[in-house]
Structure prediction request, 150 residues.
Amino acid sequence: MISIQFKDVPHLIFPTEALDAWQQNRLIISIQPEMSIRLEVQAKRPGLDMILNPVDLVFDYSGTYKSEAPEAYETLLLDVMMGDQTLFMRGDQVEAAWELLMPILLAWTAKKSVSFPNYSADSWGPEVAEALIAKDGFHWFTIPTKSEKK
Prediction:
């Protein structure tokens, strides 16, 4: 899941009492397991009162297209069998990529980090990840899945 959180505008056009549920607008691209593109924006509720709340504009692949999407590598393997190289890197591109990455891999191998923030796979990550963005006034947030929203 990729979430892009937009910056707030430098000035507010709404009265402060309308901002109780205010959150920054977000573009959320979900790749697996639920493929969708969501734009979360602030909207005024219908009626005379100025009340804003976040709403979702959603493009959901499974809701739009009824045919089954190919499995993760199904398309890629079919392309290999058909000889279609469109989605593959050329040999010189692969060599250039390794030329770029090998010095980094060799440096990591040569100098082991003594304070690497390991964490278990079923966790939200190391505490230092929270501290890293908290120092700038930010925080991690979770996005409810389609089944959690129902």
Summary: Residues 1-66 form one domain. The helical segments are 61-64, 74-82, 91-110, 127-134, 146-149. The longest helix spans residues 91-110. The mean pLDDT is 84.
